[in-house]
Amino acid sequence: MNPASLHRPGRVPRAGRVWLGGRAAAAVAFSIAIAAVVAFAGVPRTQAQTTVSVIASADTYADSSAPTTNFGGAAQLRVDGSPTVDAFLRFDVKTVSGTVQRATLRLYANSASTTGYDVYVTSGGWTESGLNWTTAPALSSKSLGSAGAFAADTSTDVDVTPAVRAGGSVDLAILDRSATAISFGSRESANPPTLLLTLGSGPSSTATVHPTATATAAPTATASPSSSSTTSTAPTATPSSTTSARPTAGPSSAPTQTASPHPSATPGPSGTPPAQGDPVLIGAGDICVTSIIGNAAATARLIEARPGARVFTLGDNSNETGTASQYTSCYAKTWGAFLDRTRATIGNHDCMTAGCAPYYAYFGSAAGPAGKGYYSYDLANNWHVIVLNTQGLEVGGTGAGSPQETWLRADLAASAGKHIIAMWHIPVFTSGLLSRSAYDIWWQDLYAAHADLILDGHDHLYERFALQSPAGKADPKGIREFIVGTGGAPPQVFGATAANSEVRHAGTFGVLELTLHAHSYSWRFLPAAGGTFTDSGTQATHS
User: Fold this and answer.
1) Among 56, 244, 276, 425, which residue's Cβ finds the most Cβ atoms within 10 Å?
2) Interatomic CA distance for residues 42 and 45, integer angstroms
3) pLDDT at residue 294 greater than cutoff 80
4) Residue 425 burial by CB count (10 A; 0-12/13-18/19+): exposed, middle or buried?
């Protein structure tokens, strides 16, 4: 391969896309890298396997009819053959460890195509906010893979295993195979581009990940090393709080704990023993994928062992496309055993089938009023639970003055003086890659009502935050957020560490157990069989 071959195949190379002159050395280096990538034949499967989902860390598209326009913040990725529009993706695989046995690019198609699309490797160096038609990177001369015809509102998969190399990032381009435009979900959408990695133990020749978290020690939390966990105790807990995090070593562990000293929080047991009558909630989000149903079955066994606990879900109960058959063939056979004591939360995957109809049909009254997905209920010890619907298009929006937000303010006013827990699917604050600001107003309303807890899913990982304000500032009068996307869907990785994050862990399936006392609450993360990561503590309520 030579520098002149790095262009859009079958089309005249655009201005600025052919590497010449002083860029020749870089072009040769990239040509060698591409040749090695295309020639890569994969590695044999090992017995120990796991699947990890990596969300795109950057994506955008370049439009030949608007050559200087940047589309980095768009909620969709577009490709077209006339006028030519190409999409660009980047995936950061530094935090994934193990042997990559298979890598699959998954794009959610908003529109249909009768011809599909092609995937190419690109050079790096571009930025999401800076790329346009004139600055778009060079492409390899050979397609990495292709997708055939597909319907609208479906996920499309392309095998991109040869492009996943050790360390660094994976840069890809998507080209339309016809003159009919295609729209995909971008990372700003509810259905972001995803790289699905099948990993095995043993020597890695494709994707060895180097944890990005910093490592410091602290006298306020107990922890032992884990390759994918980070613990940190931030200076926001009150003197009445105790915490204990134990991320323990896995098969290929490396210490990545972070912590900052706290003068008042002390290591303690896993919470205050429940008094007779103290309600217990147990649950998680991102639960069932039919092809890996064993993960959901493992977390279901944790619930089965606690028959007196009330079950909550945090959305993506079906972490596929939310069809009736997926609920009956996966969720019903695992967590469905506890339907009579479950209160469900809706997620974006639950709504991938028109109108979220199978979700409402399966859960019935356990999902609140049909077609709304938001509701509330009371528990003993003066606790009040609010469940909200992040799928705003289905219920008239999520912003200030929307029917749902108006209902929330009224519900909070009617519940003044109670201990408040709110649950919804997509987090506002996260060290993962899938936060949304669309729900800021909910944080503001809940903070004004002195709420105690917010529980989210969506990111397939576990994270605990210190008390914080809606602006993300440490605040002893603030709300503690948990992300518990560990019900059984493939684990995801962390991005940059968010402010006030106390504990972060990815790679362990499990559930969160909350014991609700009269004037405090205790939490425990319970790992599924074979997992050893735990997190626990107790916090006084605001009232």
Assistant:
1) 425
2) 9
3) yes
4) buried
- Please spell the DSSP secondary structure of 48-108, one letter per residue: SEEEEEEE-SEEEEEETTSTT---TT-SEEEEEETTEEEEEEEEE-TT--SEEEEEEEEEE
CA 6/CA 138 separation, integer angstroms: 5
Q: What letter would DSSP give residue 401? A: T
As beta bridge partners, residue 170 has 91
Cβ proximity of 420 and 384 under 8 Å:
yes
E strands along 213-277, which residues? 229-231, 242-246, 266-267
- Sequence letter at residue 460: H
Of 219 and 115, the structure prediction assigns the larger pLDDT to 115
Q: How far out from the chain centre does Cα 310 lie?
A: 25
Alpha carbon of residue 418 to chain centroid: 31
Helix (H) or strand (E) holding 282, with range, is: strand 280-284
User: How distant, in Å, are the alpha carbons of 160, 475, 541 from that of 419?
Assistant: 49, 17, 7
Give the pLDDT confidence of 63-122 residue by residue, as tens digits: 998 899 999 888 889 999 989 999 999 998 877 777 788 899 999 998 899 999 999 999
Name the token pair of 76. Answer: 């969709």
Q: Please tell me whether residue 246 adopts helix, strand or coil conformation.
A: strand
In sequence order, which residues have a C-beta less than 8 Å from that of residue 499 and are 6 or more positions away? 429, 468, 472, 473, 474
What are 399-413's pLDDT values in tens digits? 999 999 999 999 999
Residue 206 is predicted with a pLDDT of 30
- Taking Cα atoms as reference points, which of 425, 444, 542 lies closest to residue 483? 425
What pLDDT score was predicted for residue 242?
A: 59
Q: What is the CA radius of gyration of the chain?
A: 24
Q: Can you tell me the distance from the alpha carbon of 295 to that of 299, in angstroms, rounded to the nearest whole number? A: 7
Of all helices (H) and strands (E), which one includes residue 329?
Answer: none
How confident is the model over 5-45, as pLDDT tens digits?
Answer: 344 444 433 333 333 333 333 333 444 344 444 333 333 33
Are 445 and 479 in contact by the 8 Å Cβ rule? The answer is no
Report the alpha-carbon distance of residue 394 to residue 154 in Å, rounded.
18
